[in-house]
Amino acid sequence: MTPDLKIVATADGSNTIFNPQVGENYHSRHGALQESKHVFLKAGLEYFIGRTQAAAVSVMEVGLGTGLNFLLTADYCTASNTQLSYTGIEAYPLSQEMISQTGYEQYVPPAIWQAFMDNYEASMQTAVKLNAYCQLQTAHCQLLNFQSDQQFDVIYFDAFAAIHQPEMWNDEAIGHTIQFLKPGGVFVTYAITGNLKRMLKGMGLQVQKVPGAPGKREMLRAVSS
Ligand SMILES: C[S@@+](CC[C@H](N)C(=O)[O-])C[C@H]1O[C@@H](n2cnc3c(N)ncnc32)[C@H](O)[C@@H]1O
Question: How far is the CA of 160 from the centre of ligand 1 (A)?
Answer without folding.
Answer: 6
